[in-house]
Q: What sequence folds into this?
């Protein structure tokens, strides 16, 4: 079966994707004023911060003035847990979700009926951008429940007119059976879970290249270009990066188009800024910094200048797909999985890139941090694959050495590399747990 | 004249060796000989057994990384200088011994040594030219079963 398809990569609700910049800015300005008024009237925390600065909503004279407004951060959601940031009465709230955050109390987010509409449209536009359309059969392996991924993708897929299989995560053999028997054309899941599906398929003797599956919509965790290449090669599908976070809406804040050159932000809904994470100063396009987002169209829980902790850059370079929406560069680092070892900031994605740069593909790894006699140690456990396994000690030691060297030249630290038996490292069915920190702080 | 050997990756930790052994035992596969090379972190288990294809399939199905390697089994007189004589033949040929191990498969007064050469085909030819007995797959399992 051919995996190509010539369906136009948009949907009637995709129209704002193609607005001329001046019109887009005008729309953003209009929506920003409304949301700032709403938050000022209904969010005590926002009002308090505005008052501290002597600011009133009417002090905003243009879109540019957004930078005068106070930031919101993750701890604001924790501190006001559970309902402190809600700007709609409970009687109007139709859905609650909680972030997938694993540290401490969850973060609760709320949607009224109009917000669900906005989110659904953002997901329809996301699917459409990468060529998913009515008639596609979408296996939704994002978790259903409190996590925003499952239902977010679900409602978008239904509105698109596709057939949704709400399989959620887990039970990989069943996932493969369904994929094969139902003729699935599109899958939604975390990229690490898809790698797990690939492993399982190989074990079951299923070649995904022979199935109708043609696209994967992967998000909820950072991944690398190397991982994309590997997924595409081994499964014959196109792998697309979707970006989102519960605090803003869930998946569908930004999505890659068929050009696969970074996710387009749905700027009419989510206003992006890049700031210097140290000073808070707003940076220009193409400059790397922390992504800050303002929800322009969400009512039940407006987020104004929310600091995402994701490090990226905005680009306004024209995209061949014709969308005028700016794109974010691949999220290279994420502060929530960053760790500091011997004073050096290290991101698991850097370790991954180093491992993949060495001959052979070694996708499954885990980083173990320990403290021995007051000194931090990093051990990187890498599963041995059939391609790299040699029956001589020398060749395996050489592989270990090359991996250690690649890590050292990437992060500037010496790591102990330990080869381990395949399929022994923990596989999560949602986000991969890459770092195990055993240091007693 | 070459013999198929299975090599397995093992972690250097308790229980690592028993896992593949149980897989083979459950299917009634008998091992003719084996050797383990170990380092601080990992080991390589090398196995010679008659049903190597079936063993490979079973081990891979159980999640082991398995590699098939051609090795050469050489009959060596069980007397001082027996091994030296074999190695002497290879000296100067440029053929390298990657590793070797011995197993006691005695027929008359000869032992069998398993060699992994970087160039097994040329090694076999050279050894045969010097009238050193290279034991083939059929012969080795026949002898292992005491049918000498």
A:
């Amino acid at each position: 079966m051919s995996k190509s398809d010539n369906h136009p990569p948009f949907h009637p609700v995709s129209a704002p994707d193609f607005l001329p910049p001046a019109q887009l800015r005008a729309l953003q300005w209009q929506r920003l004023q409304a949301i700032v008024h709403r938050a000022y009237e209904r969010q005590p925390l926002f009002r308090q911060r505005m008052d501290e600065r002597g600011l009133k909503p009417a002090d905003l004279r243009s879109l540019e003035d957004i930078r005068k407004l106070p930031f919101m951060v993750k701890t604001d959601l924790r501190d006001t847990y559970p309902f402190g940031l809600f700007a709609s009465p409970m009687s109007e709230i139709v859905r609650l979700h909680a972030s997938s955050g694993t540290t401490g109390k969850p973060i609760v987010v709320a949607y009224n009926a109009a917000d669900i509409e906005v989110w659904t449209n953002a997901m329809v536009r996301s699917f459409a951008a990468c060529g998913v359309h009515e008639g596609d059969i979408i296996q939704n392996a994002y978790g259903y429940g409190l996590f925003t991924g499952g239902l977010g993708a679900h409602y978008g897929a239904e509105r698109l007119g596709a057939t949704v299989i709400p399989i959620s995560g887990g039970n990989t053999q069943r996932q493969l059976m369904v994929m094969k028997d139902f003729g699935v054309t599109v899958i939604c899941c975390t990229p690490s879970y898809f790698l797990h599906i690939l492993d399982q398929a190989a074990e079951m003797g299923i070649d995904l290249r022979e199935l109708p599956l043609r696209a994967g919509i992967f998000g909820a965790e950072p991944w690398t270009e190397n991982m994309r290449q590997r997924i595409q090669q081994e499964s014959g599908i196109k792998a697309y990066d979707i970006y989102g976070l519960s605090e803003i809406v869930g998946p569908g804040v930004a999505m890659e188009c068929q050009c696969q050159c970074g996710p387009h932000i749905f700027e009419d809904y989510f206003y992006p800024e890049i700031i210097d994470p140290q000073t808070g100063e707003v940076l220009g396009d193409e400059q790397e910094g922390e992504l800050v987002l303002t929800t322009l169209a969400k009512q039940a829980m407006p987020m104004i200048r929310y600091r995402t902790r994701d490090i990226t850059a905005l680009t306004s370079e024209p995209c061949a797909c014709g969308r005028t929406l700016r794109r974010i560069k691949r999220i290279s680092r994420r502060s929530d999985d960053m760790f500091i070892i011997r004073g050096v900031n290290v991101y698991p994605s850097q370790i991954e890139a180093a491992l993949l740069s060495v001959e052979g593909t070694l996708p499954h790894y885990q980083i173990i941090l320990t403290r021995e006699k007051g000194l931090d140690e990093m051990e990187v456990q890498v599963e041995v694959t059939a391609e790299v396994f040699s029956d001589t000690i020398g060749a395996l030691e050489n592989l270990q050495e090359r991996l250690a060297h690649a890590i050292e030249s990437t992060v500037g630290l010496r790591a102990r590399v330990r080869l381990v038996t395949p399929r022994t490292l923990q596989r999560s069915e949602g986000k991969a747990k890459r770092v195990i920190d055993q240091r007693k702080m | 004249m070459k013999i198929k050997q299975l090599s397995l990756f093992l972690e250097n930790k308790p229980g690592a060796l028993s896992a593949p052994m149980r897989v083979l035992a459950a299917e009634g596969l008998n091992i003719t000989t084996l050797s383990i090379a170990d380092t601080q972190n990992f080991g390589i288990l090398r196995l010679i057994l008659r049903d190597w294809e079936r063993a490979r399939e079973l081990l891979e199905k159980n999640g082991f990384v398995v590699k098939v390697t051609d090795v050469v089994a050489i009959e060596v007189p069980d007397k001082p200088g027996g091994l030296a004589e074999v190695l002497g033949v290879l000296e100067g040929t440029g053929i390298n011994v990657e590793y070797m191990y011995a197993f006691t498969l005695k027929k008359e007064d000869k032992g069998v040594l398993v060699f992994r050469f970087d160039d097994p085909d040329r090694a076999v030819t050279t050894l045969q030219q010097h009238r050193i007995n290279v034991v083939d797959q059929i012969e080795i399992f026949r002898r292992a079963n005491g049918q000498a």
In short: The mean pLDDT of chain A is 90. The CA atoms of residues 314 and 328 of chain A lie 5 Å apart.
